[in-house]
Amino acid sequence: MRGRKYHPPILPNAERKEWFTACREELEALRRRDVYDLVDRPKGRKVEGEDFDKIFSPVVRFETVRLIMALAALEDWHISGLDVRSAYLYGKLDEEIYLEQPEGFRISGSEHKVFRLKRALYGLKQAGLAWWRTLSESMKLMGYK
Question: Structural domain of residue 114, as residue ranges?
């Protein structure tokens, strides 16, 4: 896509402004969470998220859910849920992954630089495994086995 002018989604003006604002806020959140470094384009490396060799998708067995629910009912346990809005951003990456700066949001004066990801992003094939490893390490530190 180099050399082409970026065109935002075809939306009415008010929605287009909201879309740009949401994109800027998301990029700022990634910067604040130290998800990436802005670096010079590496020589001899692909600048994309395709360099991986493992795919992982944590799933829950329904038998386990039923067992926990039955135990909770028998033992009068309190059950609650938790949804971490940006859970994958806590997953540390083992691989070197470089991404182009998003079109329309390139940093002025550093347009030639790329993002080197330090943490997983939604959409990366490695994200599930990276998050699971980080969660497992945290649980072990709290004494879980």
Answer: 13-58+85-141
